[in-house]
Amino acid sequence: MNREKLMKMAGAVRTGGKGSVRRKKKAVHKTTTTDDKRLQSTLKRIGVNAIPAIEEVNIFKDDVVIQFLNPKVQASIAANTWVVSGSPQTKKLQDILPSIISHLGPDNLDNLKKLAEQFQKQAPGAGGATAQEDDDDEVPELVAGETFEAAAEEKDKEENQAS
């Protein structure tokens, strides 16, 4: 067929208008406000109460801290539910540790000591790790004709004789 004739025919095809097939149902776009309303109604049913005058909330996960400054805090003691809403910031534990030491009570000193030990182990050249501990992590070097088991047994014998 001729290209011009094809273009003319394509121009004659129409979508919509008189005689076209109707849409089955109207597309409904969900808004985020419905989610917020549903959440608020669920929290109201649980019976949460706002807790005023909280300046900072820190959530600890491994070596990362999620920090909320001036959050809105709601709680339901009976349902064991706490709601913290606000803008979060993710920070490393090392960065935030000096500012939260004053918040820790005497019962948290053991946890603080454990954290300090973890930091010493993670830091290269820290005084907490000895040379023998470093050797335990390494794979023993093999000599031609030896197996891993034989090399490990020799190393165990050397350690037992030394102690």
Automatic annotation (TrEMBL):
Gene3D superfamilies in the cross-refs: Nascent polypeptide-associated complex domain
Basic and acidic residues: compositionally biased ranges: 152-163
Alphabetized Pfam families for the sequence: NAC
UniProt keywords, alphabetically: Transcription, Transcription regulation
Taxonomic superkingdom: Eukaryota
Annotated SMART domains: NAC (SM01407)
Subunit structure and binding partners: Part of the nascent polypeptide-associated complex (NAC).
Listed name of the protein: Nascent polypeptide-associated complex subunit beta
Source organism of this protein record: Pyrus ussuriensis x Pyrus communis
